[in-house]
What we know:
Order of helices and strands: HHHH
Strand content: under 5%
Radius of gyration: 32 Å
Distance between the termini: 80 Å
Largest sheet: none
Structural class: mainly alpha
Amino acid sequence: MSFLRRILGGGDRRADEAPPDEPVDVATLQAAEAARDRELLLEEARRLDDDLIQRQLRFADRAWTPPAQGGTRRADDAEETAEP
């Protein structure tokens, strides 16, 4: 919109600019981030309140998969016959 205002000659250009940022306190930012992380963890715990879901997540890395059986040939593949 500022592009159109400048072309058409309307409005003050300085009004479109954002005010300068104030100095930020690092400790305040870290405390806000820690509070947000705690809230996210609590929400995740509420969502996964079921014991079954928690056990599934806890033991997911130990899930057993059966070994691969057979070769690369499948039943619907055309049979290759060697001609002497």
